[in-house]
Design a protein that fits this description.
α1 runs antiparallel to α2 and α2 crosses α3. The strands form two sheets. The protein has a two-stranded parallel sheet with strand order 1-2. Strands 3-4 form a two-stranded antiparallel ribbon. The longest helix has 11 residues. The chain is an alpha+beta fold and 113 residues long. It contains five helices and four strands, in the order βαβαααββα. The model has no long low-confidence stretch (mean pLDDT 90). α1 links the parallel β1 and β2. The chain has two domains: 41 residues, Rossmann fold (3-Layer(aba) Sandwich); 51 residues, Dna Ligase, domain 1 (2-Layer Sandwich), CATH 3.30.1490.20. One of its GO terms (biological process) is purine nucleotide biosynthetic process. Keywords: ATP-binding, Nucleotide-binding, Purine biosynthesis.
């Protein structure tokens, strides 16, 4: 006799959303849903999602490279909070640029803005 899990709960977003999707296709009730985990895993998608529901947020911009950060500095001014899109939590993956000149040293080697 096969015994299956009826509900799988996820406490933290550092899980494989693809695996959760596969489990959902097999009839496992994943909570939160894989689609929710995907949003939670990407800080930019979180902000877009929240803004669609009228949740007040500071101004934000998706960043792909150093030039984008410099544009954000021109648009929003300094100090400028720079956050990683993924794997950022408890302050990890965040940096504050107090000037345009400071930006390159804060993002050296960074590939996931």
């Amino acid at each position: 006799m096969e015994i299956r899990c009826g509900v799988l709960t996820v406490e933290i977003e550092h899980v494989d959303a693809v695996t959760l999707e596969k489990l959902e296709l097999q009839g496992i009730d994943c909570q939160p849903k894989a689609s929710t985990i995907r949003i939670i895993q990407d800080k930019y998608l979180q902000k877009v999602h929240f803004s669609q529901y009228g949740i007040p947020l500071p101004d934000f911009l998706e960043i792909h490279n150093l030039v984008d950060i410099e544009k954000a500095g021109e648009l929003f001014g300094y100090p400028l909070m720079i956050k990683s899109k993924r794997l950022a939590y408890d302050g990890r993956g965040n940096a504050v640029a107090y000037s345009k000149e400071e930006v390159p040293s804060l993002v050296t080697g960074k590939t996931d803005f």
